[in-house]
């Protein structure tokens, strides 16, 4: 039987899970997770056993306040995934790049991950805001601060891409008589003098193996969709149902056409929180138990699915065949439990339906996603790299 179009799968790693009460249902303490990468390393290995395309790992400000007054923090995502690169061989590794950081540092960090993983890196540009700014930005959404934050994200993304393009294919760097030697003919400095972001000079890390690590961007509305349209090769969206997914796909494709990128390869991923069990009743019971521990029902920017792996396969198949999704980024409510259910239950069911790979056939993230290697300065309408507005 010939294999038809197959969907892509990714998983979001978020502490003990996407549900705020997930940490209360584990033997470990939050402090132990913050001080060790073991939790996420185990999850990345498990995801690779399931042949998933990639994992994402978020960053945040080093310390931020939870609503119950606890101070929370995260390990730096690119460093954790750099360790995971040594412990895996095929799965893609996608950390966040926060707009509040220097674009040159982010570019070097992600390029280093691409080298360490032999071409398995991606990155997710994300607006870096304080809780106070977030409240102001979303009330109302599309207000001046919201627009300003995404204008900054646009410049930041262009700057990072420009640093990767500053090393042309074949450029070499070495020591010469105790000094630094660069073949200047093969270097094209980044050049961006924006309102929010400035970038100049060349990256400190040579050209990544993929040309550019895969750019993945999350969007919820027109303004972030515009950023997706201009720069993303993978777009994460958060539909409520099939009709909503179709509307989002149409809007994003329209914006991509406006940006002159309609013919460029692009993968649309729908995000979904998942709570899985052997029966729908048991899954609903798990969700209710977590909600009771947290003191309120689980709400998220993405929809919540509570059911069986087979039921989830039905849901994904509908969104894939009828909703226009190319793939899915699943957010386990409890990382260990739900990731095991995805690998041991969902993946075999999708394989049985001919909807998911039975083995890795590529070695790079671009290969998994069917994306070509990025050419030098490969950004329509922006000249080379970060230059040209």
From TrEMBL:
**Signal peptide (from-to):** none
Keywords linked to the UniProt accession: Flavoprotein, FMN, Monooxygenase, Oxidoreductase
Q: What is this protein called?
A: LLM class flavin-dependent oxidoreductase
Q: Please give the residue ranges the record annotates as the region Disordered.
A: 370-389
Q: Which Gene3D superfamilies match?
A: Luciferase-like domain
Using the record's annotation, list all stretches that form the Luciferase-like domain. Answer: 35-319
Q: What PANTHER family does the entry give?
A: ALKANESULFONATE MONOOXYGENASE-RELATED, C2H2 FINGER DOMAIN TRANSCRIPTION FACTOR (EUROFUNG)-RELATED
Task: Tell me which InterPro entries the record gives.
Answer: Diverse_substr_monoxygenases, Luciferase-like_dom, Luciferase-like_sf, NTA_MOA
